[in-house]
Automatic annotation (TrEMBL):
Residues 1-145 form the MGS-like domain. It comes from the Bacteria. It comes from Caulifigura coniformis. GO terms for biological process: 'de novo' IMP biosynthetic process. Pathway: Purine metabolism; IMP biosynthesis via de novo pathway; IMP from 5-formamido-1-(5-phospho-D-ribosyl)imidazole-4-carboxamide: step 1/1; Purine metabolism; IMP biosynthesis via de novo pathway; 5-formamido-1-(5-phospho-D-ribosyl)imidazole-4-carboxamide from 5-amino-1-(5-phospho-D-ribosyl)imidazole-4-carboxamide (10-formyl THF route): step 1/1. This is Bifunctional purine biosynthesis protein PurH. InterPro entries: AICAR_Tfase_dup_dom_sf, Cytidine_deaminase-like, MGS-like_dom, MGS-like_dom_sf, PurH-like. The lineage of its organism: Bacteria, Pseudomonadati, Planctomycetota, Planctomycetia, Planctomycetales. Keywords: Hydrolase, Multifunctional enzyme, Purine biosynthesis, Transferase. The IMP cyclohydrolase activity resides in the N-terminal region. The gene is purH. HAMAP family: PurH.
Length: 527
């Protein structure tokens, strides 16, 4: 019986030598338009699918291989009398090998500003149909879906034929591929659907009854949080362009597990600001953050917020790094582990990678789309025996809904600092109290079990800079003690969600102390 292979691939890597190998084994080759042309250019004799089916490829390639003569040839079981009779009656020829890879949906949607229609056209229909048909009929057919399978398949065919064991393994790999492909499509359009329904998506929108997550290993990590913990970094098939997964490391040592956590936190914070902004992350909390007229100014404010904690930190910047910022980054007594920014000017890269103190240590990551808009995404956290899923705390803040609840209105500069402090406070582990002054974080109390302790730590960190600062609290003050603490330190205005049964007592304390206070109506716990 003639040996026959159907080849239809978007990614033609390694295809020429593989198909020439099949031809040497006297395989007849059938192919779709672009693949047939590619193979003919390589000197391979090919039969067009359109010639075999008697139908031209049509509708911009939406219909090419969707024909009973193709699927009958893949799904037919020639040694079953009934199948053999149908094949004979309809002139259906059996295939021994199907070689398919799909339209590059993931690569297409990873491009910035990809159009909805372009994404839709990249949904491959005929390819997965053939893959599924061949995988189902693996008792008779080998299904090849990856270029790195070519060598093994060719070697087996040269030795005779693919064993059942090999065909089973190829079948399993094929279903993994189509599952991942469909997951990427679903994930992309989930974002589209949520984005267009951004007016009021219910909290549970898009949360399926059953969750099938696919992540691909990007790299093994030296270790996890501690050297005795094994670890690896996995990425989503359709990670967004604003995420650390989309960043390019342009210099420095291998990233660590803790680096990645801190880089993620750094990106989330600087994305909050339209103006030049910088943040300094230690142990997943911002110990500094600053905004300014220039990136250099913003970074200086961020680092000086808590220079002791900032030693050995991860830096997030929301503008391309220029020479002036490099001078600040490399100032004496400053030491940084990693920097993530939308880009680095060539002179900035040279300066950062040639200075003796820096060249072997600092990791530089470019994330060109760091400031692009992105729909609210899901956050997954493991608990033993389960997984918690929630929307990331990314809904834009609407300042027009904020209420001044005290007799005194905040002054203009207090209001600016309150808005700034509120944006950063959201990224601090609860209980979070954050003091800020003139676009600079001056004290952070993070991760304490009582709010009054966080207030004390924030004031202690700020030292004399707490005079005239403002305070943000990620959740309501349960008692007036946190307010008293802040006032004693010299804080003049506060921002918090409100909602405590003792709100009246807390407001009265502010009025008594001459403080201004805003209720935002939205809590930002971060556990
Ligand atoms: N519509 C069809 O019948 C169809 N059949 C095969 N394809 C895909 O077309 C691609 C190959 O096309 P070409 O050989 O024209 O470059 C492959 O990725 C294959 O998965 C199709 N395209 C989309 O669904």
């Amino acid at each position: 019986m003639a040996r026959r292979a159907l080849i239809s691939v978007s990614d033609k890597t390694g295809l020429g030598p593989f198909v020439k190998g099949l031809v040497d084994l006297e395989f007849e080759i059938l192919s779709t338009g672009g693949t047939a042309k590619f193979l003919r250019d390589q000197g391979v004799k090919v039969i067009d699918v359109a010639e075999y089916t008697g139908f031209p490829e049509m509708m911009d390639g939406r219909v090419k291989t969707l024909h009973p003569r193709i699927h009958g040839g893949i799904l037919g079981r020639p040694d079953l009398a009934e199948d053999a009779a149908s094949m004979k009656e309809h002139g259906i020829l059996p295939f021994e090998l199907i070689v398919v890879n799909l339209y590059p949906f993931e690569q297409t949607v990873a491009k910035p500003n990809v159009k909805y229609e372009e994404a839709v056209e990249q949904i491959d229909i005929g390819g997965p149909s053939m893959v599924r048909s061949a995988a189902k009929n693996h008792a008779y057919v080998g299904i090849v879906t990856r270029a790195d399978q070519y060598d093994e398949v060719l070697a087996a065919l040269r030795a005779g034929q693919l064993s059942l064991q090999q065909r089973r393994r190829l079948m399993q790999a094929a279903f993994e591929m189509t599952a991942r492909y469909d997951a990427a499509i679903a994930a992309h359009f989930l974002k589209e659907v949520q984005g267009s329904a951004a007016a009021a998506p219910p909290a549970s929108a898009g949360l399926p009854q059953q969750l099938d997550l696919k992540f691909e290993r990007r790299q093994e990590l030296r270790y996890g949080e501690n050297p005795h913990q094994k670890a690896a970094w996995y990425v989503e098939p359709s990670f967004g362009p604003t995420t650390v997964s989309a960043a390019q490391q342009v210099h420095g040592k291998e990233l660590s597990y803790n680096n990645l956590l801190d880089l993620d936190a750094a990106v989330s914070i600087v994305r909050e600001f339209k103006e030049p902004a910088a943040t300094v992350i230690k142990h997943n909390n911002p110990c500094g953050c600053g905004i300014g007229a220039t990136l250099a100014e913003a970074f200086d404010k961020a680092y000086e917020g808590d220079p002791i904690s900032a030693f050995g930190s991860i830096i997030g910047l929301n503008r391309v790094v220029d020479a002036a910022t490099v001078e600040q980054l490399c100032a004496p007594n400053r030491f940084i582990e990693a920097i993530i920014a939308p880009g680095f000017e060539p002179e900035a890269i040279t300066a950062l990678t040639t200075r003796p103190k820096w060249k072997n240590s600092v990791r530089l990551l470019e994330l060109p789309q760091l400031m692009s808009a992105q729909a609210v995404s899901w956050e997954y956290r493991r608990i033993a025996g389960g997984l918690l899923v929630q929307e990331r705390d990314e809904l834009p803040e609407d300042e027009t809904t904020w209420k001044v609840v005290t007799q005194r209105q905040p002054s203009e500069h207090e209001r600016r600092d309150l808005a700034f402090a509120w944006k950063v406070c959201k990224h601090v582990k609860s209980n979070a109290i954050l003091l800020a002054k003139a676009g600079m974080v001056v004290g952070v109390g993070a991760g304490q079990m009582s709010r009054v302790d966080s207030s004390w730590i924030a004031a202690h960190k700020a030292g004399s800079r707490s005079k005239g600062a403002v305070a943000a609290s990620d959740a309501f003050f349960p008692f007036r003690d946190g307010v008293d603490q802040a006032s004693q330190a010299g804080v003049t205005a506060l921002i918090q969600p409100g909602g405590s049964v003792r709100d009246e007592e807390v407001i009265a304390a502010c009025n008594e102390l001459g403080l201004a206070m805003i209720f935002t109506g939205r809590r930002h716990f971060k556990h």
